[in-house]
Amino acid sequence: MTQFNEQITLSSGTTLKNRLMLSPMTTQLSFYNGVITEDEITYYAQRAKGLGAVITGAANVQDIGKGWPGELSIAHDEMIPRLSELAKAIQGEGAKAIVQIFHGGRMTSRATLSGEQPVSASAVAAERPDAETPRELSEEEILETIQAFGDATRRAIEAGFDGVELHGANTYLIQQFFSPHSNRREDRWGGSLENRYRFIDELLKSVFSAVDTYAKKPFIVGYRFSPEEFETPGIRFEDTIWLLEQLRETKLDYLHVSLNTYDRIARSERYSDKTILEYVHDTLQGKIPLVGVGSIRNRNDVSRVLAHAEFAAVGQQMIVDPEWAVKLAENRDEEFVVKPFEKAYQELYLPSPLYNFLKARYQTTPNV
Ligand SMILES: Cc1cc2nc3c(=O)[nH]c(=O)nc-3n(C[C@H](O)[C@H](O)[C@H](O)COP(=O)(O)O)c2cc1C
Description:
Layout: E1 8-9, E2 15-16, E3 20-22, H1 38-47, E4 53-60, E5 72-73, H2 80-91, E6 96-102, E7 119-120, E8 135-136, H3 139-158, E9 163-168, H4 173-178, H5 193-214, E10 220-225, H6 237-247, E11 254-257, H7 276-284, E12 290-293, H8 299-306, E13 311-314, H9 316-320, H10 324-329, H11 341-347, H12 352-361
Parallel strand pairs: 3-4, 3-13, 4-5, 4-6, 6-9, 7-8, 9-10, 10-11, 11-12, 12-13
Antiparallel strand pairs: 1-2
Bound molecules: flavin mononucleotide.
């Protein structure tokens, strides 16, 4: 079985010193226009020690893709110098720096978009309270959005990041194109599974073309996905298996399943004998490394994830326990923070946007 401290070389040629990653988590600490703040750089640097890679919180690739206030942006060239400082701060602690690139699609609001109507594959509102009905993207706008992911990749390269992760999970725009709930199009971008996959396929071409053109050293490209949706119609685990059969044949360096608990079982009866993580891992046939995630707090959790994945990503534990990975490596397990997260947050100094976000998360369950 994979040990957390084993190094690994990805297909791009990048070597990670171990199997631990910081799971992408928005801090809501950026300036109003998405430029990174000093507090945010400090936050990431404090948590990078002992990890193979840090994946940043979602960064929007276009202004219209902004999902919430305080979000990181990679939509304009003027952001490159500050992004570069973030990459250096993470790398200075010995971890690879990966920026998560994203577009919120319909999962945002006019208030966040300075009055603009949110956009999506189709004009269908999400099933959540106060959801706004988005405007359907035109063919031309779809092509611009795909180009924007390529441009964001170029900026990540120019800023000195080691890679990008495409945020195809948690109901945001990439997932909205694959989902039969949010994608009701009747043109080449909608309808069959193959057509709903076209957006992802074209995004990968755009991102890899930027890598081929601009990267002077190996550059990581990862992809995050959610296994199933609750809406009807919606993505079922069977659809995700099909998606993975496509993605495992690509040049991606890793796939990252988004889960709140690593031992979750799928809702689909056909896939109820094993955990989602196990089915996903089996489907990949060892062709692409898998990142597992969800409620990892101790050594046993890491081992259980690495039994069915090549990487373990850690989220909330790293917020409350910034040196957790160092403690793990030095066998200082008795020093792990073990309090329930709700309590641990309250006792920590956390910048107030992040603190408020976490407080809300424990009262509702936002799709982050
Ligand atoms: C504060 C917070 C912000 C998050 N932001 C993102 C995000 O920007 N992108 C993303 O893919 N997932 C996001 N997530 C989900 C986490 O990456 C992770 O999948 C989830 O929290 C489960 O892992 P954990 O139990 O180790 O926290 C966020 C989670 C939290 C708690």
